[in-house]
């Protein structure tokens, strides 16, 4: 199907046995989704072998089957935490084989939808595994000719993964540097704003000092945008906002105290230097006679 894709229309091969298969998938979906299902017991049957065979089914040409496969795998990922690294690795292997060997697979779009949901749950700072996934899998997925079939899903994955990366480490510095105004415009994007809110407990402590200092920024736009962002965080989590504000004031107070002590030390050193300089001017240097030469 992918080999003959012309970018205008897509033909689906419908499995005539679907009325029976659909019932089986529905039962399994309800089983995995049910809160009554004990993951500790069920994992003896939903093991690595089961997951690999399940992923093989994504080759199906019937979109109805792939849709059920996607939902069930997503629920499996959520319920069986012990299987999460294996599922990510197995999906990566399918993508690698698709990119570098076959360029033929019917379920790439569905697998990317699952990965998009997984990316939303990534914690900061990003693991090296997730950074490599961006470079080795997501970016090369633009290479195959059938990329239009999964363009929406790949765009979603890359956008969210890059946003998570942008929010890590250097975000606080960006808010105080030359790019402060552009960085603050991140909040104009609803997806990014929601992502930031979800990770606010990690992000706000990083950027709070910059937001506070930006209230006296020379650029009016930066001052206005910073105030808007402060309000977003204040409304979303007042308790966290107050904690950050209290810590900021304590840190600033400590900085002032340290600066004051440092200034006192330098003042004392300057006084000592002046005193010794004046003392040296009143004391003549000792003249050392040269040895007499014998004639």
TrEMBL record:
Pfam families per record: B56 (PF01603)
Q: Which domain of life is it from?
A: Eukaryota
Q: Please give the organism.
A: Mikania micrantha (bitter vine)
Provide the GO biological process annotations.
signal transduction
* GO CC annotation: protein phosphatase type 2A complex
Protein name, as recorded: Serine/threonine protein phosphatase 2A regulatory subunit
What is a single molecular function from GO for this protein?
protein phosphatase regulator activity
